[in-house]
């Protein structure tokens, strides 16, 4: 009985391999050719996008989406070769899609966020953005994530879903950006003299534009000092180098004129002690 069972099982396996063997071999050949074809198509697509001067952000997104669609189409062809009916194949993909969708709700949100970013373009590759408490240059926008590089060389990957639903401060979208230097001076200084020194210093920087012209204003009268703000405009790409250079230049110019940064002072009077008695103690 056992011999007959194993003999029958062996015959069925052989028959099955003979029936499906050519299809499996053909499927393997199509798989190899399909992968090779996809690689060629992706190279052609990259060249077309480069020659058309497509934005880097859109280029990266299109490439990622194209790879996903091409491999999906390849698996569909392999299923048809192996004898899986189209209706059954679509049903399997539909069921798998629902299961994957429930398991990857965050990823689907990120995909939708990536589409919104590419459509409305709050930022693009190369922009300096501040988002989710991170400041850096956009390196890449994928279908699910966006990568930025910070000034200290860190790579931060942020989900597109969060980016599309949060405030994004794009600091290079506008061509020009204003530098604000907040300074403090004692009550004894002459505001007009301070203004003349600072403005002449700001104008010496090669990256400062002529219009709007640099200006200096008294911003606040504090308890111990006068708060002054000095402003000038530069191109957004030159903002941080110009900011640090201007701050240092203003400090050196004020030092050259003998103008010091004020130190908080507090007068203390003792009850029953007059000014005359204090002067005698000093003597």
Key terms for this structure?
single chain; 283 residues; alpha+beta; Helix Hairpins; SH3 type barrels; Alpha-Beta Plaits; 3 domains; five-stranded antiparallel beta sheet; three-stranded antiparallel beta sheet; 8 helices; 54% helix; 18% strand
Give the helices and strands, then pairings.
Elements: H1 2-51, H2 56-81, H3 86-103, H4 105-120, E1 128-131, E2 134-141, E3 145-149, E4 155-159, H5 160-164, E5 168-170, E6 176-185, H6 191-203, E7 215-221, E8 226-235, H7 239-256, H8 275-282
Antiparallel strand pairs: 1-2, 1-5, 2-3, 3-4, 6-8, 7-8
Helix pairs in contact: 1-2, 3-4, 6-7
Organism: Mesonia algae
GO molecular function: mechanosensitive monoatomic ion channel activity
Membrane topology: Multi-pass membrane protein
Describe the protein in words.
The strands form 2 sheets. Strands 4-3-2-1-5 form a 5-stranded antiparallel sheet. A 3-stranded antiparallel sheet has the order 6-8-7, covered by helices on one side. The radius of gyration is 35 Å and the shape is elongated. Helix 1 runs antiparallel to helix 2. The termini are far apart. The chain is α+β, with helices and mostly antiparallel strands. The model has no long low-confidence stretch (mean pLDDT about 80). The chain has 3 domains: about 100 residues, Orthogonal Bundle (Helix Hairpins), CATH 1.10.287.1260; about 55 residues, Roll (SH3 type barrels); about 80 residues, Alpha-Beta Plaits (2-Layer Sandwich). GO terms for molecular function: mechanosensitive monoatomic ion channel activity. It is a multi-pass membrane protein.
């Amino acid at each position: 009985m056992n011999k007959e069972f194993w003999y029958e099982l062996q015959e069925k396996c052989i028959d099955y391999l003979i029936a499906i063997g050519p299809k499996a071999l053909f499927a393997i050949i199509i798989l190899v050719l399909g992968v090779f074809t996809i690689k060629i198509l992706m190279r052609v697509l990259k060249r077309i996008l480069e020659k058309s001067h497509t934005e880097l952000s859109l280029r990266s997104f299109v490439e990622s989406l194209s790879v996903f669609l091409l491999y999906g189409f390849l698996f569909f062809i392999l299923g048809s070769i192996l004898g899986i009916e189209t209706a059954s194949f679509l049903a399997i993909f539909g069921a798998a899609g629902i299961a994957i969708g429930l398991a990857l709700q965050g990823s689907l949100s990120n995909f939708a966020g990536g589409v919104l970013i590419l459509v409305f373009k709050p930022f693009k590759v190369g922009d300096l953005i501040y988002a989710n408490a991170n400041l850096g240059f956009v390196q890449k926008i994928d279908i699910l994530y966006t990568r930025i590089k910070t000034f200290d060389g860190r790579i931060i990957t942020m989900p597109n879903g969060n980016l599309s639903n949060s405030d994004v401060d794009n600091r290079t979208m506008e061509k020009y950006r204003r530098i604000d230097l907040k300074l403090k001076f004692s009550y004894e200084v002459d505001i007009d003299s301070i203004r003349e020194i600072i403005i002449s210093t700001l104008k010496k920087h090669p990256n400062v534009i002529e219009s709007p012209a640099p200006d200096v204003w008294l911003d606040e009268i504090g308890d111990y000092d006068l708060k002054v703000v000095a402003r000038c405009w530069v191109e957004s790409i030159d903002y941080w180098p110009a900011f640090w250079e201007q701050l240092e230049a203003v400090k050196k110019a004020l030092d050259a004129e003998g103008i010091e940064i004020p130190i908080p002072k507090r007068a203390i009077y003792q009850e029953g002690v007059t000014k005359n008695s204090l002067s005698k103690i000093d003597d």
